[in-house]
Design brief:
The N terminus is likely disordered. It is built from 4 helices and 6 strands. By secondary structure, it is of the alpha+beta class.
């Protein structure tokens, strides 16, 4: 029962989400598109506005990434995206924020090595003190990747 009590106590702390207005949904779609374009072009200035200073992002490799890490990655030029396409987007209010789950197909070059992945991203957008919508938490999971998986020895 202690586990159930902790779940109940956490859920009682979270405010009930209000239905998502059409205007807010459209605005979130717009900031998601700005994020897609900023990633595609490694636009560090745009990413700086779209990512919260205290961002916590867990990527598809299980690494925890900060805003500083993400901006440095894009500044390095190591990864050059050729395409980033969104599909299967779901937008849902959560307290004062908005959760977006979206399927992403991207391709490009990492160094000189081509890559192509199908991922699912989940992001929590929250309004900043400057009244900007920013990603505060994010996570990505692999749906399909062309990166070979290590072989598992058979017993």
């Amino acid at each position: 029962m202690p586990a159930l009590r902790s779940v109940l106590s956490v859920s009682s702390v979270l405010p009930m989400a209000q239905p998502l207005s059409l205007a807010l949904e459209q605005h979130i779609i717009e900031v998601e598109e700005r994020l897609r374009l900023a990633m595609l072009t490694s636009d560090v200035a745009a990413l700086d506005q779209l990512l919260a200073d205290d961002l916590v992002f867990t990527n598809h490799l299980g690494q925890t990434i900060s805003k500083h890490d993400d901006l440095a990655f894009h500044q390095s030029g190591l990864c050059r995206f050729q395409t980033i396409e969104y599909s299967e987007r779901r937008i849902q209010p959560l307290g004062e924020g908005v959760v977006v789950s979206v399927r992403v197909q991207w391709a490009g070059l990492y160094g000189e090595t081509p890559f192509q992945d199908h991922l699912r991203f989940t992001r929590l957008w929250q309004r900043s003190s400057q009244d900007l919508w920013q990603v505060i938490i994010g996570h990505s999971s692999v749906i399909h990747s062309n990166v070979p998986s290590p072989s598992v020895p058979k017993e």
